[in-house]
Amino acid sequence: MKRLLVLLSLLFVSSSAAELRVATFNIRYAARGDKGEKSWTSRRDLVVETIQQMNPDVLGIQEALDSQLRFLAKELPEYSFVGVGRDDGRKRGEYSAIFYRKKRLSLDANQSGTFWLSDTPDEPGSVTWGNAVTRVCTWGKFTDRSNGKEIFVYNTHWDHRGQPSREKSAQLIREHFAGQKEDKAPVVVMGDFNASETSAELKILSEGEGGLSNSFLKVNPDEKERGTFNGWKTTGTGGAMIDHVLTSFELVISESQIVRHHRGTQVPSDHFPVLTILKW
C-alpha cells in the first residue's frame, strides 16, 4: 500500500508539472562581409521560421545587433525581450537578449538586467579579463502566469579567444545565480559559451553543490553528432558542442535537441540552436 501511494504521488507530480520550452540561438550578427545566402537579409526569414518551429517559451539570442533584434520583435509579436547592447548598455553592439512569451511568463523588472563579464560588471562596455571583445550576460526572474512558479534565466555569450576570461565569466555567473538561492527558484543558464562540455569553464558551472546539468548531454549521452557551430553547412556537425542549455536540479529534462533546420543549402546561422523541454 505504501509503495502504491508513492507511485500515485509521483504520477500526480508528473501530471501537474508545467512544461517549459527553452532555446538558445546564436543568430550571427549582420556582418557586411556575409554575402549571398549568408547575408542577414537573405536568411532572416529562415531565422524566424526556425524560432517558430522550436516554439520556445524562453529564447536566448546571441550576437543580435539592434536592427536584428527589432526585426525579430516585429516578426514575433507574441514575445517581449530583455537586454541591452553590450558596447554602451543601450543600443550599440551585440545583444545577448532573452525573449519570453508574454502570455505565458511575466518578468520581474526589479530582478532582471544585464551585467558585463569583467571586474566591473555594472560598467557598460567594460573589458578587464583580456577578452577579444566586450562580453555580457542578461538575466531575469520570470513567473509562470498559469501557476505562479518562478524561474531564473541567464543568457550569455563568452569570449572566443580568452580561455582565462571564460573561466572568470563562469565564476561570475555562478556567484550571481548562487546569490539568488533564497528565492529557491530553479535556474537556467544558456548561451554560446565558446567552450565544450568537458572544458574547465563549463565545469565551474556544473560541479559541486548547486551545480548545473547539461540538458542535451543528460538525455543524449551517446550522441556523437553534437556540434552546434556549423560553419554555414547543413551537415558534418561532429565537432564540439559550444552552445548549451544548463539547468538546476529542480528541473526535469524531458527532451533536448540540436535543431538543424535549413532550407536547401541555406542554414539560418553559422550556429544551430539548442531546444530543451523542461518540467518543474
TrEMBL record:
Gene3D superfamilies: Endonuclease/exonuclease/phosphatase. Residues 23-271 form the Endonuclease/exonuclease/phosphatase domain. It comes from Roseibacillus persicicus. This is Endonuclease. Pfam families: Exo_endo_phos. GO terms for molecular function: 3'-5'-RNA exonuclease activity; endonuclease activity. Keywords: Endonuclease, Hydrolase, Nuclease, Signal. InterPro entries: CCR4/nocturin_mRNA_transcr, Endo/exonu/phosph_ase_sf, Endo/exonuclease/phosphatase. Residues 1-17 form the signal peptide. CDD domains: EEP-1.
